[in-house]
Each structure stands twice: as C-alpha cells, then as structure tokens.
Give the backbone structure.
Amino acid sequence: MKAYFAEVFGTFCLVFIGCAAVVIGGFGELIPSGGALGIAMAFGIAVVAMAYAVGPISGAHLNPAVTLGMFLAGRLPSKEVAPYMAAQVIGGVLGALVLWIIASGSATGAPASLAANGWDPVEGYSASAAFISEVVATFIFVMVILGVTSEKHSTVLAGLAIGLTLTAIHICLIAVTGTSVNPARSIGPALFSGGTAMAQLWLFIVAPLIGGAAAGLAYKAGVFDESDLSAVEKAEA
C-alpha cells in the first residue's frame, strides 16, 4: 500500500505544481513564447523532486504510460499495473481538484480551462499532429526512464535526467497540445474543464499509452542491450 500512496502523492504533486504554473503562475497566457519555459520547468522540477521523494518507495512512475512501459519491459509484475494506474489517476484528479479550489478563490473565478491538454485545428495544430507528437514524446520519455533506471545504468542522477527530459519535451511540443505524455496529467484537468477538453481527452489517454507500450516493447527486445555492444567492442579490439 505504501507504493500506491506514493504514486497518489507523487502524481498529485506533478499535476498540481505543473498545472498551477499555467493557471496561477500566469505562464499559460504567454504560450508559445517565454511561458513555455516556465511551464516546462515546473513539470520537470516536479518530476525530479518526486523521483527522489517517492522513487525509493514506488519507483515514481507518476504516469500510466510509464507503468505500462515498465510492465512490457519486464520491470513490473502484472498484478501491480492496475493499482499503479488507479493510484496515478486518483492523484491527478486530486491535484486538479485542489488547484480548482484555489483558482476559484480568484476575483475572476476559476478559468474555463484548468490547464487541460488539447489541440486547435483552426489556430493551432491538427489532431494527427497532436497524436503523433504525444506518441513520439512519450516513447522518448519512457525509453529514457527505462534506460537510466536499469540495473546496468542506474545512477543517483537518474531523477535529474528524467526531469530534464520532460522539460525538454515540454519546451519542444507544448505549443501543439500543451504536452501531456501522461494520461493521469490530462484526466484531472479535463474533468474540471469540461467541453472541448473532455471531448479531446481520448487522445491524451490513447497516444501516451501507445508511446509507452512501444518503448517497453522496444526495450524488452534489446534495443539497449549492452551484450551486443560488448560483442562489437571485442570484435573491434
């Protein structure tokens, strides 16, 4: 149960801190200019903090796509997949709830969109562009996580590498969808935004899960298998 509570807390902090940067911090009004950096850093720093705070307890997945990737890579028992994902979604919803309560105390009230992910085919990017960006970004993110947390590559800087990767992904793609790469991050804010956010939520569940699954399968297939690398090095020697 400690691991599940850790996932609830970690995902709560990720969603609350990251989305608060948009809703309360005011960075949302500046996207896609300088505001992207502030939001990217908020999400990235939150991941770094949670990686070290709850990582030793649950692995700090904080993301159903990461959990799926870990499972398919053979790094998580099947019995843990559903509880982990449920804990993450609960944490994301609670994070959005607390943010909504705080934002509602503003003189103008809570915003219509609580930092929900989405795309705009008229003034922004198409659904296909949004889908591809979420799949590719999640694939990259989960591959990095699998790599830096493997037994052979494990390092005390793993949390920093993961957080910086998420920061970079946000900087690059935030103008397309607001950057999700995490169904739990998208579900909570969408529930408190309604309308278009709920109608488009499916993409931010399906695309990250596909990206995470692809990363897990690729890793399981030996994309980063050091044994092959060693054989090449021996042959060259």
